[in-house]
Amino acid sequence: MELVPAKAILARPKDDSWFGNDYNMNLYRGCCHGCIYCDSRSECYGVEDFDRVRLKKNALGILESELGKKRKKGVVGVGAMSDTYNPFEKEAEATRGALELLERYGFGVALDTKSSLVLRDIDLIQKISRKSCANIKVTITTADDSLAKVIEPYAPVSSERFRTVRELGRAGIFTGVLFTPMLPYITDTEENVKEMVRLAHENGARFIFPMFGVTLRQNQRDYYYEKLDEYFPGLSRKYGNVFRGNYFCGSPQAKKLRSLFQSECRKYGLIFRMQDIIAAYKKLPPEPRQLSLF
Ligand code: SF4
Fold first, then answer.
1. Which of 23, 93, 136, 278 is the most buried (most CB within 10 A)?
2. SS3 letters for the chain?
3. In this structure, which residue's CA is closest to atom 3 in ligand 1?
C-alpha cells in the first residue's frame, strides 16, 4: 500500500461539540467507499485523488509519541475524513495498532465507520471502554440496500451495517447509528425515517443521530451533481433551483421529518440529542435538576 509522509496524526478540533471529541485522528488519506455525497472530497481539505487510499508513513510511531506527550487524556475521534476500516486495513492493521496505543495510554475513542471490519477489533474496543470510554457510530443513511448501493457504492450495504451495530452491541460496546446525511429528494422520506429508527432499535443501537440535509461545496458539489445526473436524472437541476449553491442543503421536509423522527425515537426509547449521547457513552452523571418546592 502506498505510504504518504505525515508530520502529525492527532489534531485538536475547534471544540468538543461533535460527540465530545478531544482530538481527531486520521491514519489514512482518501477513502474508497465512493459515497456520492462525501464531504471529504472538498478541495478545502486538499486530498488529491480522494478515492485512492494511502497510509500515513510511520503513523503509529508518530501517534505513540503524541499520546505520550499529551497532558490531557481524552476521547480521540476516528474516521472523520476517511473510513479507517477501508479494505486495506484488513492487512495493514494500522487502526488496530492505533487502538492498542489508545488503550495503553488511557485514551477513549469515538469512531465512525460503515464497515463490518470494526468487528475484528471488538476485544480492543472493550478494553478501551473499560479503562476510559468508547462510542462506535455506524453510518447508515438509508434502510434500502439497493439505494445504498447507488449512493455508497463500495461500502457494505445497509443491512450489513445494521448487523454490525447488533454485533457490537451484543459485545457490550456503546454503539449507535449516524443517520447523516439525509439527501433531499432521495432519502428524506417518512418511510425511510421510520424504517431507520425501527431498524436501529431492533439491532440494539443505543442512539441514532440525524442530520436533515446534506452539505455541498466546491468540487464535492460537482461530483455529487455528476452522480445525480447518472442515477437521478433531472435532480441536479432541481438542487440548483432550490438550494442555489448553498453550503447546507436542508430537506424541504425537514420540519415534518424531524418531528416524526423524534416521536419514533421516543416510542422506542432511543436517544438522539448530542448532549444525551455524549453523557451516555462518557458515563457522565445525570445533569442536576432544579429542586422544586412543590
Ligand atoms: S465512507 Fe465516509 S469518508 Fe469514505 S467516501 Fe463515504 S462518506 Fe467519504
1. 136
2. CCEECCCCCEECCCCCCCCCCCEEECCEECCCCCCCCCHHHCHHHCCCCCCCCEEECCHHHHHHHHHHHCCCCCEEEECCCCCCCCCCHHHHCHHHHHHHHHHHCCCEEEEEECCHHHHHHHHHHHHHHHHCCEEEEEECCCCCHHHHHHHCCCCCCHHHHHHHHHHHHHCCCCEEEEECCCCCCCCCCHHHHHHHHHHHHHCCCCEEEECCEEECCHHHHHHHHHHHHHHCCCHHHHHHHHHCCCCEEECCCHHHHHHHHHHHHHHHCCECCHHHHHHHHCCCCCCCCCCCCC
3. 82
